[in-house]
Amino acid sequence: QVQLVESGGGLVQAGESLRLACAASGLTFGAYPMGWFRQAPGKEREFVGTVDRSGNIKKDADSVKGRLTISRDNAKNTVYLQMNSLKLEDTAVYYCAAASLSTKIVPSDVPEFGRWGQGIQVTVSS
Prior knowledge:
By secondary structure, the chain is mainly beta. It has strands at about 5, 10-15, 20-25, 35-40, 45-50, 60, 70-75, 80-85, 90-100, 115, 120-125. About 0% of the residues lie in helices and about 50% in strands.
């Protein structure tokens, strides 16, 4: 049974940093590109970033470029999202996801991801 469990969310002030982690089990972690998405109330799920199987190739959304960085540790079956200089508009539920094996190296569309975590709340206050 595949499980993706996010941790590290919470309430922070604007300008502060937070690191999310997503622990994976039940799958050959290193075989899957991994991604982070987020969804704010009343909005569609939004791509944040993707890292390829090796951790060497990354793709970030323009809206978070330079502030939010995805990485992975295949030895720990964990993918991370480092979030710096957080803004009010970063408030959302953050989801990690495992891409389908047949997708491109760094997919970024929701349908390209077949396994999802339950999500974790990040709230940025002023």
